[in-house]
Write a structure and sequence with these properties.
alpha+beta, four-stranded antiparallel sheet, 11 helices, 4 strands
Length: 305
């Protein structure tokens, strides 16, 4: 096969269908940018889960004097020292517990003031209204149910809470956004595939005379189809390159500079450059292969010479 002839045919095809080729590049770029962004979002959620699940605890809250009148679990009054010691001893015997930190009512009140100092409720609360608690660090955060079943309902225990619930809503929101991005990406890929098929069809129709002559002189089907396939692959590769640039520029301005989310949200561990770079070859490969395969199957139907 003469490479020069194939390259010249690719150039002719791209010039004849410049507008549709541009539309293919744009649609492929947007769809693959969403695809890469979805992969990075999934990595971001996984990274955040690993970070926050390692820091959140299971909390055992004890009854105080005020709970005896309002909470049916605390009808026997405030927790006693013996009850707290019994809970602590049982926690120490559990292999799934890594460590236990006691938070007194005064410490709980101090922490509340630090977090909600601007709230008008701070002035109406006193330290004795705050609940003592044990903050339990588990070796496996998924073992929360063992703690709940062992201590929920005990005398002096007001509640057993898994603090993961406070971050699970955030993860559900992020996952929902990721699914929405995947849905839009799928729609954009369908649009890109349709544009590729139509572009190949128009290109094949406009060059039906040349392909007919090539068939008469004994050219193989693969030789005739190759310029059309490479046209689509070239346009897809350009779109994938644009998508890679969009991902790199997006991370640079959103996380490192511009909005500088890494500086403003220091509690969040964002995906790194290594994770982004690892996705770029996949984006380029899809941008190259997807249009080429679409063109190959489209030509079987439309390239009748």
């Amino acid at each position: 096969m003469r490479a020069q002839f194939v390259l010249s045919e690719i150039g002719v095809g791209l010039r004849r269908n410049l507008t549709m080729t541009f539309a293919v590049i744009v649609s492929v770029a947007l769809s693959l940018a969403l695809f890469g962004g979805s992969l990075l979002m999934r990595d971001q959620v996984t990274t955040m889960k690993g970070y926050w699940y390692d820091k959140v605890n299971v909390a055992i809250f004890f009854c105080n004097k005020g709970d005896a009148e309002t909470d049916p679990k605390c009808t026997k009054g405030a927790v006693t020292s013996d009850q707290k010691d019994a809970v602590k001893a049982d926690l120490d015997d559990m292999p799934s517990v890594e460590n236990v930190i006691h938070e007194s009512s005064d410490e709980a009140y101090k922490h509340y003031k630090e977090q909600f100092g601007d709230s008008p409720l701070v002035n109406s609360l006193t330290p004795d209204q705050m609940q003592e608690s044990f903050r339990i660090k588990l070796k496996d955060p998924e073992k929360y149910q063992l703690i709940k079943s062992a201590f929920d309902g005990r005398d002096g225990v007001q509640a057993v809470e898994d603090q993961r619930k406070t971050v699970d809503n955030l993860f559900e929101l992020l996952n929902g956004m990721n699914y929405a991005a995947l849905a839009v990406m799928a729609l954009m890929l369908i649009v890109a595939m349709m544009l590729i098929v139509n572009t190949v069809r128009v290109s094949a129709f406009s060059r039906r005379r040349e392909t007919g002559i090539m068939r008469l002189v004994g050219a193989s089907s693969f030789y005739i189809q190759m310029p059309f396939i490479m046209e689509a692959a070239f346009a897809g590769l350009l779109g994938a390159g644009v998508a890679c640039v969009m991902l790199v520029v997006g991370r640079y301005f959103l996380i490192d500079h511009g909005l500088a989310l890494a500086d403003k949200l220091q509690l969040i561990q964002f995906v790194g450059w290594d994770q982004l770079i690892a996705k770029l070859p996949l984006v380029l490969a899809i941008g190259l292969l997807m249009p080429a395969l679409a063109a190959f199957f489209a030509l079987r139907k439309y390239l009748k010479v």
